[in-house]
Amino acid sequence: MGALSHIRVLDLTRVLAGPWCAQTLADLGADVIKLERPGAGDDTRHWGPPYLKTPDGADTREAAYYLCANRNKRSITVDIATPEGQKIVRELAATSDVVLENYKVGQLQKYGLDYESLKAIKPDLVYCSVTGFGQTGPLAERAGYDFIVQGMGGFMSVTGERDALPGGGPQKAGVAIADLMTGMYATVAVLAALAHRDRTGEGQAIDMALLDVQVAMLANVTSNYLVGGKAPQRWGNAHQNIVPYQAFQTSDSWIIVAVGNDGQFRKFVEVGGRPELADDERYATNPERVRHRDVLVPIIAEMVKTRTKHEWIEALEAAGVPCGPINDLAEVFDDAQVRARGMRVEVPHPSGATAPLVRNPIRMSATPPEVRSAPPTLGEHTDTVLKEVLGYDDAAIAALRGKSVI
């Protein structure tokens, strides 16, 4: 039994931030009912290729993007624009502990599915709204997109190569980091709200905004600005205050070298066959290396190019110099540590395929997260949920399907 096996979540979210939160709750044992549009479903179902393949190599209708954020859920299809569909949602909300939604501000109010409407049905409901800019403020009604928020929230001002260097300029993250972090913050907020409800019997509304999260997650970078009053700049793979602490190209790939003190610097250049660099007064201490980085770093870069990635990693690890490879995903999933931690899991899929997924990274001794089921096909559990949760009979379900409500 999962830690949240007593919790039911009605998931009205699509794409990534909301589904990521819902999947985390599902991994922890919650019964997550994912409500989707009949015939279309979550937008990410169609964000392919690649698509999951059947054993004979044919594409299924399940895009890899959708698979990453929807395991352990039950999918039902309901048209919430119809009175009958709205009734189903209200009935499901009445049996749920949590409702997640990421519609535009005010959009669900016209259907009677906003927090105040559902609170009247279930006073202790935890209702989490995920939007780009929040429920208040001049941009509240604007749609939010991760890429745009990364720019607006300052992330891209500190990410990317320095403007003065080749390839310099703002750069987004390689994944939708504002979406994912919003999903994680939303998970924390939902768990806190459930703890409050269990103690007091009081539900509440949660207002999660991608822009808020993007600003908050800059952490020490934001703090540096607030304390120092100077906007930080991009440093690429280098460190503003430590040298050498960056990525270097080897003869065949790339490595990261993270020299944290002068002793490690001496070991690094000794391994590289340039021990005289540690005795040069310009490079002997970190403050001097920072002052002379524009001279030192090109020298080190040429030194590192003389060996392969694996030769450098082996030699530096033996010398006690912090380092690591820059792996592509094929190398990641072939890594001995990643394999030992079981980060790849294979789950049977209703299509007959086997869905390769990434396991939840949370480790708990008593109630660990688990993969109970593959991401569901569109509407896979509509009949089951309507029967088991709401008590609908076959005739009622057939009538709803005849009206295209489900």
UniProtKB/TrEMBL annotation:
This is CoA transferase. PANTHER family: SUCCINATE--HYDROXYMETHYLGLUTARATE COA-TRANSFERASE. One of its GO terms (molecular function) is CoA-transferase activity. Keywords: Transferase. It holds the Pfam family CoA_transf_3. It comes from Trinickia dabaoshanensis. Gene3D superfamilies: Crotonobetainyl-coa:carnitine coa-transferase, domain 1, formyl-coa transferase, domain 3.
